[in-house]
Amino acid sequence: MVVEGSELILVVNCGSSSIKLALFDAAEDKEILSALGEALASSEARLTVKGHLSANRQLPGGDHSAVLRAFMDLLTEHDFQRSRIAVVGHRVVHGGEHFSDSALIDDKVRSQIEACESLAPLHNPANLMGIRQVAELLPERPQVAVFDTAFHQTLPEKAYRYAVPARLYTESALRRYGFHGTSHRFVAAKAAAWLDRDLSATNLISAHLGNGCSVCAISAGQSVDTSMGLTPLEGVPMGTRSGSVDPGLMLHLLRRMDMSPQALDQMLNRESGLLGLSGLSNDMRTLTGAADEGNEDARLAIDVFCYQVAKTIASYWAVVKGPHALIFTGGIGEHARGIRAQIVAELGAFGLDFDEAANAQAIPEDVGVLCINRSSGTRVLAIRTNEELMIAQDARRLLETARGG
Q: Which of 129, 174, 314, 388 has the most crowded Cβ, counting Cβ within 10 A?
């Protein structure tokens, strides 16, 4: 139940052609509204709102600004006073080496986000656009940037440096940064609480598996390695991204097959992964259905995916010297029970006692227990991630600090 008159927190996630919004009751950490603006700058642009109010607005040709204005108008129409919004939290994809935590946005922070645009050319400009639009609509409200990369700033140098000439790092900051940090941080805290352990004394492996996928090694509550790198292209295979491939393959395509850098980018980011292997779909639900009906390409895509995820998890088992828990999260991690089972089966050397009945059930609101290693006590958990809530909590924390709370 929303506390009448309580402060609200607005969460904004701007993509290049979409914008996600969420409104939280600050007093109860409760999401009361969510909204999606999609197909922006096209004749199909629209805003969909769910939660304490439901609405669909067609916004032909509308951009991010039009969506935000329409959302604010809806709040006013339904007696959500705009003045109750105390702070706005933004997802920002890349913070480079500038940020190891979320930050109140000022001119310096904005310029540092701009400085990272070359590292995230599709994401940071859109994130900055959202920051500018909110500043116009809510000029007196503080804004907070929550960075995908911040959680991974604790990686040791041996984990984040590439074995290339040192000048590429010292002059251009080309290194492993990692992504999905907000999700990994959220589920790590949930797992530690469920295990009844201090996060600072907890070792975990977190597998965020969705259309984008990354695995994170967490030691004493801190990220110490992660599968994504300089960009979200590195690591395990994903929906349409290749994940890690031999750089020699790219040189071959550029030199011997006369592929342009733009075409190579398109292939690796949008035509590879599950889609490229199967020739069918980037959606794991479609692929599992097709594999069950005998489609061998779909089966191969699933097998490659599960093998590579399991191989990465196995390597991180050594990094954290035995986790207290392995976490599955993200759309696939939370819902694809067959994929979870296949990945755990690939990890047979670790003696995990898989509970088929528990895996077959829908995971509860917070944490589902799938199996346990009887000798080490390692649990395998499925945890619902909530990046929007994490952003809202960070925004509230920094607002309270600024107020002297």
A: 388
